[in-house]
Amino acid sequence: MFPQSSISTDSTDGHTAPDKPALLEGPIDNARLVEDLQDRRVGIKIPYSALAHLVASFDAAVILFASVVGTGLYQILANSGLDHLEPVLGVGPVAALLYVLIGYSTGLYDLRAALAKKRRDAGRIFAQWTLVILLFTSLAFLMKSGAVYSRGSVICFSLLAPFLLVGWRRFAKRIVAGVVADGQVKGQRAVLLGTGEELAALGLEELLGKYGFTEVERVAFPAGRGGGFAMSAGEAATLEHAIAVARTRGAEAIVLAFPWSDTRKVELVRDGLRISPLPVRLLPDRRIRSLAGNPSFRLQNSLSVEIQRGPLSRAEQASKRLLDIVGALVGLVVFAPLMILSAIVVKLDSPGPVFFRQKRNGFNAKEFSIFKFRTMTVMEDGATVVQAKRFDPRVTRFGRLLRRSSIDEVPQLINVLMGDMSLVGPRPHALAHDSHYGRLLSDYAFRHHVKPGITGWAQVKGYRGETALVEQMKGRIDCDLWYINNWSLALDLKVLLLTCLELTNRRNAY
Fold first, then answer.
1. Which uninterrupted H or E stretch holds 305?
2. Sign (positive/negative) of CA torsion 13, 244, 201, 172?
3. pTM to 2 decimals?
């Protein structure tokens, strides 16, 4: 925990860097402090989500050990030897599997609800073990294999295992508490946003131990209840600062620490964070946490509310990324001769570089440089970018062919391999266009909830090329949002197939 008395203020930017998260009003940058503390702590950084699986694995190992010891002791005492152990030792793996599966389903391995709590789990472990033995005996009866097992060995194993599990659980709690306190556990990277009072009452160890988050920075929301149905200028600036910090620091979530009684702030912040693709969780306030510390409180003390989930789960992100990598590699191999020929002709057709690079906004509005074959005589990449029009004089002779056939987009397979883009997703626009349409259309920023794509649902629906009218851009955004809300691998494959057909139509390609 941090000492309470050390708070330094930088008068140049109005930010404070507290040793203890006791905060002044306004945006707060204690990222350097957090990183310094983490750097001082040595040891292997264990993912917080992996701790539960490690504890479950050791539970299974304890049960296997108990089966070997219990069976061996009975055989030595009863038979003065170790004969016919194979059938009996098979009980251990089955019992371990049943115990772990039941434990996951009942929350026995929820670190925030079980291991982090200062409560005795002996009764729960004995009850769960009794259920395992009942299930095992039922299976043995149904499969008519009960005669194979030594009843004495099974009884010894059944009596020994729960005591070993209780002892191991107490030891595991100490280990988990120790590695969390020593900074050897890394949670989900999060930006902490809340009122000064709530942030001051929430330490780094509590944030990690109870909720599984590692703080990368905390931002204090302006004090005062305010009024009306809109944010004040200060509140809006603070929210924008928090979103920018989450983007630049690579945060995986945004965590809110507000009094639950202040519904206005919670609702306004929730609505304001919709433009961010990161999941958002609301932590219990100080009063709720104090109730959760009461032994008679029946709810989990890790109670938190997910008020926004990420557009894609980790498994969905992994499957989409795998499709992107495989598709990009295959595409680069197949189109390599065409790319080489196009590069040569571009260079001979007009003066200038082969590739056109321009800044675009990607996932979570992070900037990246997009690759295209140069098709115009200009290289616009600033505050003003003029869209290509039909019969645009800036388009070169060979560039017109590249644009109509979409061959100029093939180098973006490199962007896909680099992870800046996906094969399928909302088409990225120039930064100037993002700024312009972002002011005109409230839903425009939602396009950044997923990676931009070489092709997308809007393109196969005919929204391709120039968007001279706001209505045309709105139609494109509606298609993009539908794609984000209905994503699946099958949809990506469908879009890729429809793109091949759309290229033959050459609608709005100029």
1. strand 305-308
2. negative
3. 0.64
